[in-house]
Automatic annotation (TrEMBL):
Ranges in a coiled coil: none
Subcellular location: Secreted
Described function: Removal of H(2)O(2), oxidation of toxic reductants, biosynthesis and degradation of lignin, suberization, auxin catabolism, response to environmental stresses such as wounding, pathogen attack and oxidative stress. Suggested to catalyze the deposition of the aromatic residues of suberin on the cell wall and thus play a role in cell-suberization.
Example GO biological process: hydrogen peroxide catabolic process
InterPro entries per UniProt: Haem_peroxidase, Haem_peroxidase_sf, Peroxidase_pln, Peroxidases_AS, Peroxidases_heam-ligand_BS, Secretory_peroxidase
Binding-site positions, Ca(2+) 1: 66, 69, 71, 73, 75, 89
Pfam families associated with the record: peroxidase
Source lineage: Eukaryota, Viridiplantae, Streptophyta, Embryophyta, Tracheophyta
Naturally occurring in which organism (per UniProt): Solanum verrucosum
Disulfide feature: 34-116, 67-72, 122-322, 201-233
This protein's name: Peroxidase
Top EC group: oxidoreductase
Cofactor comment text: Binds 2 calcium ions per subunit. Binds 1 heme b (iron(II)-protoporphyrin IX) group per subunit.
Amino acid sequence: MSPYILAVICILLSACSFYETNAQLSANFYSSTCPNVSSIVQNVIQQALQSDVRIGASLIRLHFHDCFVNGCDASLLLDNNATTNIVSEKDAAPNTNSTRGFDVVDNIKTALESSCPGVVSCADILALAAESSVSQAGGPSWNVLLGRRDSRTANQAGANTSIPSPTEGLTNITAKFTAVGLNITDLVALSGAHTFGRAQCRVFSARLYNFNGTGNPDPSLNTTYLANLRQICPQNGSATALANLDPTTSDGFDNNYYTNLQNNQGLLQSDQELFSSGTTLSIVNTFSSNQNTFFQSFVQSMINMGNISPLTGTNGEIHSDCKRIN
């Protein structure tokens, strides 16, 4: 059955949650209840960037790690709480000692509660913060679809299994994207968010010294780049020392990430593997040669990701504090 016919049947029967939830998200969702929502988010991030140039990359990562676990529902933001039986996703392996920017999310929430109390969800704050972070770093801007509500539960076990790992192979990562309804183009485009931000040595140091247990570096690494990374991450050095994900324009949002992959300068294994097989390799080449094409694909893929299983209508709630349920 064609997608068009399926959509018509869904509309007639109101039977397909995918079409229903997407229809309920709207760029104008807060136009009457909190018309300044976008500018409030932008101002808080602009202020945070003055003291922390990394914050934009950190905020988009929060949105990514939230959406891959039970959908875009702000469950990642919830703290441990024995009273409400919440086991925090913050303590899952992909997030612990690595996700950051929660304080900026709290500052955005405080500003929004002051302007329009009880209106804007924490899930929508993450989506808006991701867009603002990209546009303020020189990347594209877009109309964020809004209307998500916040989860009353967290899923630490899901966070441990569903979030793509920087040390995973392309087959596994593709499967994790497919599981949430995202395709190969989404995978390559969203990986382009690694055009800014940092990664800790512990995440990629095996590539420098003992790739896949061989006792040798990853043979795909550019030798000059390998030498530079070994200076940042000596064999017995700090596991939490930071390297730029993009060695060329580390704090700007552009298509240099893909040129780096062509030059075997992908920092993470999951990055460089995009340049190892036919389908993803050809998309990398396309994005490297045309920044506008990358920007357009990135925007569409961010919208696609933001559409993963949102809570809408009467589901969930609007958290007054993003760290806890009401």
